[in-house]
Specification:
single chain; 323 residues; mainly alpha; 11 helices
Length: 323
């Protein structure tokens, strides 16, 4: 019995570490892509470069680890129609965030989609949508959700409110701002849906690598069209005139690993826990980057309020999983 408990705890600890790691990749990828975007003067071209590199990385990884090439066999025919939407949803979320940031400000742009991801992941788990295993919503889970949302607010929003240093978004009417806040919430819903789709695709294709590659391939094709329409390829000259350091091109590799791990985790632990752990990792790594001013970020020391917020999130996760 003791051996069984130890093995179970080891199994859960492994997935917890993976879940937090995949969330931690997001701020790293965002910081790196932002640096590249500053060099080429447009986020769309930066994203295209990132997705191309990520797709190549996943293709090579597939050659090394898999028995066949990605998407060459007949497993694609087993995908439902919505199995191809992961890359499209990811692109829509990326484009939406470009508009949200100057309107809502940095705090709301981060916090509202996070809340949306948590709520949508719980709904998906409760009803078993997108071919997931149903996991009924309980009072313990509801209490855990409240604690996690409170922890997010304490960590990300409260320090700025107390210091009265929250970045001011551009002027908008109250009704217009409310519409954008609802849009940000829907953005979070979309992120959770994308993760669920990628997890299902990985199960059907019997390879999280192939699932991640399909997502990157679709997103790359969409970005290619956008950049062609906008005439952004001439801006590649900025990279020729002032070559970027090698780490500026690692965003695609990090993004590929992120989606790969997500496609592996969701079928194993469910979208709700995968989302919550990912958000935990995203917050922690964001604070680490700010605390030490990594990747060109401005130094912003972590305070006791933010630490208490993280502990509240951890308590919420424990409440959901163990009570």
């Amino acid at each position: 019995m003791l051996i069984f408990i130890i093995l179970w705890l080891t199994y859960m600890l492994l997935f917890i570490i993976l879940g937090i790691t995949t969330g931690g990749f997001i701020p790293l990828q965002t910081s790196i892509n932002s640096q590249l975007g500053n060099r080429v003067k447009t986020p769309f071209l930066s994203s295209l470069i990132s997705f191309i590199i990520g797709a190549l990385f996943l293709f090579i990884l597939s050659l090394v680890t898999e028995a066949d090439l990605p998407l060459i066999n007949d497993t694609l025919s087993a995908l439902p129609w919505w199995g191809y939407l992961g890359g499209i949803i990811g692109m829509l979320c990326l484009t939406l965030n470009i508009f949200l940031f100057p309107i809502l400000g940095s705090v709301q742009t981060v916090v509202i989609p996070m809340v949306g991801q948590i709520l949508m992941s719980m709904v998906i788990d409760n009803f078993g949508w997108l071919d997931t295993q149903p996991s009924p919503l309980t009072l313990a889970k509801l209490a855990g959700i409240v604690l996690i949302i409170a922890g997010i607010m304490i960590t990300l929003a409260l320090p700025g409110i107390l210091a009265k240093q929250t970045p001011r978004p551009r002027s908008t009417t109250k009704s217009s701002k409310f519409i954008w806040q609802i849009t940000a919430l829907l953005d979070g819903f979309a992120f959770a849906t994308e993760s669920t789709i990628n997890g299902h695709v990985g199960t059907v294709l019997k390879s999280p690598i192939h699932s991640a590659f399909l997502t990157f391939l679709i997103a790359t094709l969409i970005l290619l069209v956008i950049n062609l329409v906008q005439g952004n390829f001439k801006k590649l000259g900025y990279l020729v005139a002032a070559p970027a350091p090698a780490w500026n091109f690692l965003g695609g590799v990090i993004g590929g690993i992120n989606i790969l791990i997500t496609a592996l985790l969701v079928p194993q632990i469910g979208i709700s826990l995968a989302t919550i752990l990912g958000l935990m990792g995203q917050i922690v790594i964001s604070l680490v980057i700010d605390h030490w001013g990594l990747l060109g970020a401005e130094v912003n020391k972590v305070n006791k309020i933010q630490v208490s917020g993280i502990l509240t999130i951890i308590f919420g996760i424990v409440t959901i999983e163990l009570i």
